[in-house]
Amino acid sequence: MIGRLRCLVLDCPDAPRLADFYRRLIGGEVERPDPRWAVGEGSAVLRGDAGPVLAFQGVADHRPPVWGAPEQQFHLDVRVDDLGAAHDAVLALGAVPLDDGGDGQAWRVYADPAGHPFRLVRP
């Protein structure tokens, strides 16, 4: 092993707004005091009790990825118990549906407010 994953950094136009979106989606605290996680202006950090740290970096000319396009770089999977209830909840947070997964699928795809794709997946 060469190293350990410290965090996942998402470029976006508005770091505090996107950090709050993910805080409301997966929990945790934005900007919880910790000397290891000092961030500069235009950035935000979301840390929970479990899972990876998400950092958000403000980028003025951010261009969101396109779901299903060859240049798509990544997506996040978020486990939920009830896809229907989670669907309504993420729409209320500002997510945009990208793919309903089709009949009987165990997942649905959305874009966060900055356009990054994420999936809600059943256990």
Could you characterize what this model shows?
β7 and β8 form a beta hairpin. The protein is α/β, with parallel strands linked by helices. It folds into two domains: 8-58, Signal recognition particle alu RNA binding heterodimer, srp9/1 (2-Layer Sandwich); 76-121, Signal recognition particle alu RNA binding heterodimer, srp9/1, CATH 3.30.720. It has a four-stranded mixed β-sheet, with helices on one face. Strands 5-8-7-6 form a four-stranded mixed β-sheet, covered by helices on one side. The mean pLDDT is 86. The chain is built from two helices and eight strands.
Which descriptors would you attach to this protein?
123 residues, alpha/beta, Signal recognition particle alu RNA binding heterodimer, srp9/1, 4-stranded mixed sheet, 2 helices, 8 strands, globular
In short:
Helices cover 19% and strands 28% of the residues. It is built from two helices and eight strands, in the order E-H-E-E-E-E-H-E-E-E. The mean pLDDT is 86.
Kindly provide the name of the CATH class of the largest domain.
Alpha Beta
- Pattern of helices and strands: EHEEEEHEEE
Find the CATH topology of the largest domain. Answer: Signal recognition particle alu RNA binding heterodimer, srp9/1
Oligomer: single chain
Please state the second-level CATH architecture of the largest domain.
2-Layer Sandwich
Structural domain count: 2
Radius of gyration: 15 Å
Total helices: the number is 2
**Strand pairing plus helix content: what structural class?**
alpha/beta
Residue-averaged pLDDT:
86
| Largest sheet, strands/sense/barrel | 4 strands, mixed
Strand order of the largest sheet: 1-4-3-2
Provide the helix percentage: 10-25%
Tally the beta strands.
8
Low-confidence stretches: none
Q: What percentage of amino acids are in beta strands?
A: 25-35%
